[in-house]
Design brief:
globular, 7 helices, Rossmann fold
Amino acid sequence: MRLLDSSPLSFHQFPTMPRAVILLSGGLDSTTAATIVKNEGYELFALTIDYGQRHRIEIESAKKIADYLGITNHIVVPVDVRLFGGSSLTSGMEMPKDVPLEQIGQSIPNTYVPARNTVFLALALAYAESVGAEKIYIGISGIDYSGYPDCRPEFLQAFNSLAKLATKSGIETSLPLKSSISVEAPLLTLSKRETILRGLELGVDYSLTVTCYDPSPDGKSCGHCESCLLRISAFREAGVRDPAVYV
C-alpha cells in the first residue's frame, strides 16, 4: 500500500475544501476525470488498485499522474484477483487483437475482469467515508467502451443506491456529511474523442497515460488490443497526435 500523506490523522481534520476520491488507473479516462474534478475545486484522494493486471505499467503511470496533478494522498491497494482468473488481463488467456472497430462492444470480451468496477468502487466507498469525501469519481464511459457491463449508467445508478444503504454517512444525518456519498462519472456521456478534447482543454498531458492491455517489456503499447485500437481511433478522430509510444 502506498500512502502519500504525513499522518492518517489529517484525514479526520475538518477539510478546508470539499473532498473527493478518484479511482486512478493511469489510463486516459481516469486521468481526464481526475483533471476535471481537480478543476472543480475538490481536494483529491487517489485510489489505484493493483489487481495483478498484466499491464502493471499503468500503476507506475498512475503514480506519475498523481504527482503531476499535485495529489498528495495516493493509495495503491493490492487486491490480487489472479486467484480467481476469468480474464485475459489476469491470466494466461489469449487476448483478442486487431478486432474491427465496428465489432468492439458488440459482445463482452475476455478482457472483462469479473465484477472489477464493483470491487473497485466498494474500496473507494470505504476510502471516501474514512477521509470525509462527499464524492467518488470514476472514469467510465457508457459510449466508447468494450461492452463491459460495469461501465453502463444502470450500473452507476445501482451502486449509488448501494452507497446510501451501506454506509454510516448514508443513514446518519448527524455526521458532518449532510448527504450520502455519491459516485460520479463525468465522462459517462462522452465519446473517447470528446474525452480527449475535453482533457486537452484542461491541459492533460496524455503522454503520462497508459492505455495498452498488452504492453511490451519496455512499456511500449502493442497497438493491437481493443484498448489501443479505441485510443488510436479517438486521437485520429480528434485530429491530434497520440503521444503514446507503440511497438
